[in-house]
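Sample pair:
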Amino acid sequence: MAQQRLTRPQSDALIADPQGGLPRLLEIMARLRDPETGCPWDIAQDFASIAPYTIEEAYEVTDAIERKAWDELEGELGDLLLQTVYHAQMGAEAGLFSFDSVTAGISDKMIARHPHVFGDASRDKTPEQQTADWEAIKAAERGPAGVLDGVALGLPALTRAVKLQNRAARVGFDWPSTTGVLDKILEESRELVEARDIMGPEEQAEEFGDLIFVMANLARHLNIDPEEALRAANQKFTRRFGRIEQLLAEAGKTPAQSDLAEMDTLWDRAKAEERE
């Protein structure tokens, strides 16, 4: 499945063409991975070594969107596109797939999953109905499988927890309201306290995981994205602790020269200032 290689003059001309578009990027990657003339670092990479960069670039796209940094988003999307090109080049070299087969596959999938746009199915449905149809089509594509099969292991843990819970909920394994979830949170909290007091590190970690899992379930019932909520909490903590550092600096001190009582008082001041 390797891409048909250009002659060196053709390759040089395409790479030098600022209007070369996607073919130019594909050729750049092919040249970087050339076993004789490419970049030693790029040649040494494989799917596993590049995967962390792919995840990082996806998060950087998300970060730019959340910050409304539209001047940065274009570049971050380019970085993310490069990751697809990188994996496709390695796939072509291994005879597994090519960039063309990747794009053909996703195009076919989008057409199949949107019969109301590319077929004769009705478009007169709510977004919720469309989502249900999408999931039904995905389930049919997977064929006979367990309810939880196919939820990617590499997802962020909170996101994967919600997806697993959504799958289970579709077959009726779910609390009917938040009351049951809140009761379970109290139960798991008590078990974590017990583990802290009389159990070892492994049991404590297990009970802590159970509590986080139920918290993710509560977020799902409240239509809250737990990843987004935690990111917002991280930002709030960073902002308020930065204010503590600023106030301490005005007094000629650093956090290391302060104590918990003083910093807690300054934390309350930072919170009050945000409400003004």
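The chain has three domains: 8-111, 145-224, 228-275.
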